[in-house]
Amino acid sequence: MHILLIHQAFATIDEAGGTRHHELARALVQEGQRVTIIASPISYLTGKADREYKKIVQENGITIFRVSTYPALHRSFFHRLISFFSFMNSSFFQAMRVPEVDLVWGTTPPIFQGLTAWAVARLKGVPFVFEVRDLWPAFAIAVGVLKNKTLIRLSQGLEKFLYHRADALIVNSPGFIEHVRQRGATAVHLVPNSVDPAMFPPHEDGNAFRQQHGWKNKFLVLYTGAHGMSNDLPVVIEAAELLKYSEDIHFVLLGDGKEKPALMDLVQQKGLQNITFLPSVEKKEIGAVMAAANCCIAILKPIDLYKTTYPNKVFDYMAAGKAIVLAIDGVIREVVEDARCGIFVRPGDAAAMAQAIRSLYGAPKKCEEMGQRGRVYVEQHFNRQSTAQQLLQVLQKVVKKNG
Questions:
Q1: What is the DSSP letter of 22?
Q2: Which of 140, 264, 306, 381 could lock onto 145 through a cystine, CB 3.0 to 4.6 A?
């Protein structure tokens, strides 16, 4: 089976960002499938292109095409839309040149590339599989990014159009199922976010990372990932301010995003010495960074819709064997509490976050045991190899059904 994936924000394990699709593609190839991926050269995290990127990369059954995309991804919402539309155009023409495709797999965010995937699938006469990893435009409306009423109506219309026309619709969180069904999806399949535990070796100690930054004896509180509007990182900064007299506790915010310069300015204005910002690292290096942490933070804005999410970073934290300070309610809270691998704090509550961190700092054995339970739980329930098998079964089923 030859699978064509259209994915503007695709990242390999040699890049920073979410690598779900590269890992799944590798697993599919191991099962005898062939995968072609059409992606943008512009990083979704940094908004910049790697100057040394190759337009075509081939690796054992996987072909990756990087097509021209308008680069000003983070300049404004208007420029972001131009970037999305430019990728729709260039990815369409590249996709139509890919021969002998058995199905087309579209994914969101951004949702616009889903329209390209649908069009290519119909023109090639093959099934269209649509994967929903973000309830756009609902999330964008809730956080205040999308306000124009005309754009909202058009976006909601596109969402329903794609959901209704997908031969199979995949969601990465059980919290999304009701939303997509209410908007026309029928053949809905859950292939949850997951992790490859092998990327987080349990014997890794993180000492090299600590020594590099002079944090040998610090209690490190780590956040990794996007620094965007939804991530509510000012709350983490406020928690750090509340703990500024606890000299052994140090916060590390690793990643990139549109809000990062403003966050760094805020820390400077407050004169905080217990927070360090670091740039994104390649996914294959994140295990060594997480090994240095004592606990990790997962946070989103206190918006009801975010209760539906399964954030990737939580599963990475669990695989790394780290206790989690979780400022996200809903379905991911159920996972963390079932695994007994972290402390839930009310989203938006910096004082509660500071108290949770203080309690973990004061009980190092409890903190370590939480991390160990998370590792065991994620190996059993959210292993990347298992979810790859789930995905393969969905793809095979839809191809067989459509002849």
A1: H
A2: 140
Query: Averaged over 259-274, what is the pLDDT?
Result: 97
Same domain, 155 and 83: yes
Provide the angle, in degrees to the nearest 10, between the axes of the packed helices 112-124 and 77-96.
Answer: 20
pLDDT for residue 166 is more than 70: yes
214: amino acid identity, one letter: G
pLDDT tens by residue, 307-326 = 999 999 999 999 999 999 99
**Residues 132/189, Cβ–Cβ less than 8 Å:** no
From the list 111, 286, 107, the residue with the least C-alpha distance to 198 is: 286
Instruction: Quote the CA–CA distance of 354 and 258 in Å, as a whole number.
Output: 25
CATH of the domain at 365: 3.40.50.2000
Same domain, 125 and 81: yes
23 and 155 both lie in a single domain: yes
Q: Please report the sign of the dihedral spanned by the C-alpha atoms of residue 186, residue 128, residue 140, residue 317.
A: positive
Domain that holds residue 126: 2-194+383-401
Residue 224 has pLDDT above 70, yes or no: yes
State the pLDDT confidence band at 74, using cuts at 50, 70 and 90.
low
pLDDT of residue 50: 66
Q: Compute the average pLDDT of residues 212-216.
A: 93
Q: Are residues 173 and 319 in the same domain?
A: no
* Kind of pairing between the strands at 34-39 and 128-132: unpaired
Residue-wise DSSP of 120-152: HHHHHT--EEEEESS-TTHHHHHHTS---HHHH
pLDDT of residue 403: 73
Sign of CA dihedral 13, 67, 64, 110: positive
**What Å distances lie between residue 352 and 327, 348, 356, CA to CA?**
9, 9, 6
* Total domains, the chain: 2
> What DSSP character marks residue 42?
B
Same-domain check for residues 49 and 162: yes
Candidates 334, 308, 312, 328; CA nearest to 135 is: 308
**Do 256 and 360 share a domain, yes or no?**
yes
Same domain, 107 and 228: no
